[in-house]
Amino acid sequence: MNLWQSVDPSQLISLSILVPFIGALLVLATGKNPNLREGVTLTTATVLFTIVLAITDYTFQETVLRLDIIELFPGLGISFEVEPLGVLFALVASFLWIITSIYAIGYMRGHNEQNQTRFFCCFALAISSVMAICFSGNLLTLFIFYEVLTLSTYPLVTHAGTEAAKQGGRTYLGILLSTSIAFLLFAVLGTYSVTGTLDFQAGGIFNDNDNKTALGVLLVLFCYGIGKAAIMPFHRWLPAAMVAPTPVSALLHAVAVVKAGVFSILKVVIYIFGLETLTDLSTTDIMLYIGAATILLSSCIAMTKDNLKARLAYSTVSQLSYIVVGALLASSVAAAGAALHIATHAVGKITLFFCAGAIMVASHKKNISDMVGLGRQMPLTMAAFAIGAISIIGLPPMAGTWSKWYLTIGALEADKLIIVAVLMISSLLNIAYLLPIPIKAFFASSSNISGETAEEAKPWSWSETKEAPLPILIALTVTSIGCLALFFYPQPLIDLINLIPGVSTSMGEN
């Protein structure tokens, strides 16, 4: 039964944005009582997810939900409209907010973090911005809330208050704001000057008479202006932000920020350019190969990092460009794979970051070289890490299998064999920098690595375990199950993706 059936359907959009905003205010009001504050956070996150589920139900019924807030200029204002790609992103973000909140409670308490009220407040504000991005009805609305998301997450990046945190925050804010001002703003203005509208429309808003050179320039401006997609060389903000607490890293890499970037690129490609227009632009292949280079180069850099979060950060840079490449292939199947990768990468990568935080809380280890034999102390955490790693690699029976499958099929459909090769090589690199971590944790000992004489192996016992607090274990267990569940039961997401105009998981269909 739809809990929100008595509410005007279009008002569900405003509720999805207002509920986390109100939750942020309530977090501030209850800050002196940690239990009440965290209860408010979990309740707000759960309510938001039920609202998004109701919106999803209307989407499957093909009911158009639109909400116009204010007209700033003739025919141009802040407006929202529900479409399937935005619903997919909203489902991922709202569900993972619940899980990340559970995780954050265990992490922030277990790590004795300061300023926890500010943390939960800014987290809620970020989710409110994400919901507005998901349901943006035009480029102006998307641009405004894209910037709000940047500003609302800055206090999270600098949460620790150390000089390193402040420097990371400056890099984060500097790159994201400068790319928005130097590129994205001009892309939005250029689009309006060519078309006279900024509304998202099925099949795109450009027509055959528009100057293809100008459109090619706009494509480059969009790709680099949406800095949250972390296309090289505008990727440094992402590893710089790793100074933040692990729940923030999970927010950045799976729930909100980077996904807002690749979602925005995919939405611009589908609803502003249109896949057919994209095939006629000379810069499409240029940006496609830059995205492919980002996949490989960031994977190679990841292999050199001993710090676990730094390795995962460069892994994220690589995985984001899977989505960018999927969009720029201008293939309906590749676009479907890119959309699905938003969800599959989210559950896989958030699992890995949850595990990294669990290791830090329980054993105070940050470097991979110090994690040899850790599987005896943290078997549940390292098993979850293995599941997340296999999903990111794209091997059965994990979620990442399907999105990489559709991306590969889409590259073949677009006759881009070099992209197929990039995807295959990247998967091998994923194996090289991810799988050795759980393997060494379970099957090697520090004595083996150091060359010392190993004592006779002792049977493993539960008494050796020193896992992170229960909320952390609950969160990483749920996301691990999600990696498995999306492999065996991906159909609801695939059905949703097939509702996106011009996008299909079947070859030859548009």
Automatic annotation (TrEMBL):
Domain NADH:quinone oxidoreductase/Mrp antiporter transmembrane per the UniProt entry, residue ranges: 136-429
Pfam families, sorted: Proton_antipo_M, Proton_antipo_N
Domain NADH-Ubiquinone oxidoreductase (complex I) chain 5 N-terminal: 77-120
Keywords for the protein's UniProt record, in alphabetical order: Cell membrane, Membrane, Transmembrane, Transmembrane helix
Principal location listed in the UniProt entry: membrane
Compartments it resides in: Cell membrane; Membrane
PANTHER family assigned to the protein according to its UniProt record, in alphabetical order: NA(+)_H(+) ANTIPORTER SUBUNIT D1, NADH DEHYDROGENASE
Family: Belongs to the CPA3 antiporters (TC 2.A.63) subunit D family.
Name this protein carries in UniProt: Monovalent cation/H+ antiporter subunit D family protein
Organism: Litoribrevibacter euphylliae
